[in-house]
Write a structure and sequence with these properties.
mainly alpha, globular, single chain, 129 residues
C-alpha cells in the first residue's frame, strides 16, 4: 500500500474513535511503513489506556509524524474499515510467509500451519455492539 494511502487511513482512524475501536484488534504497528510505526504504536497504546484516540498534537509530540483530523462521512468510514481490513490481511499473510521460511528447514510444519491460519483469519468483527 502506498505511503500516502497509509497516512490517509491513519487519519481516518484517529478522526473516528468508533472506527478505530472496530479496527484496533487487527491493526499492528509492524504492518505500516517504518515512518508510521511509532505513531501507530502510540495511538494503539493511548487508545488502550484512555479509550479515545489521541490529539494530533500528542501524536506529533510522541512520534514526530504530523497528521490532520478529517471530517469523515459514513461512506468514508466504510471505505476505511474495508481498506484497513484488506491491508492488515495482506500484511499478516506476508509476515506469516516470511516467518515460515526458516521453519521449513527445521520441518516445523505445525508452526507454519499456525502462522498461516492466524494470518488467514485476520478480519473485523462488524457485528459488535
Amino acid at each position: 500500500m502506498e505511503n500516502n494511502k497509509q497516512k490517509l487511513l491513519i487519519e481516518y482512524l484517529i478522526s473516528s474513535p468508533d472506527t478505530y475501536a472496530l479496527c484496533s484488534s487487527i491493526v499492528k504497528p509492524t504492518y505500516f511503513d517504518p515512518e508510521y510505526r511509532n505513531a501507530v504504536e502510540f495511538i494503539h497504546d493511548y487508545y488502550n489506556e484512555y479509550h479515545q484516540t489521541p490529539a494530533i498534537e500528542q501524536i506529533k509530540a510522541e512520534s514526530g509524524v504530523t497528521f490532520e483530523l478529517r471530517d469523515v462521512t459514513s461512506d468514508q468510514l466504510d471505505y476505511t474499515t474495508n481498506e484497513v481490513e484488506q491491508f492488515c490481511k495482506i500484511r499478516a499473510m506476508e509476515k506469516a510467509v516470511l516467518e515460515s521460511v526458516p521453519l521449513i528447514d527445521k520441518k516445523k510444519f505445525g508452526e507454519i500451519e499456525d502462522l498461516i491460519r492466524n494470518a488467514v483469519t485476520v478480519s473485523l468483527n462488524r457485528n459488535m455492539g
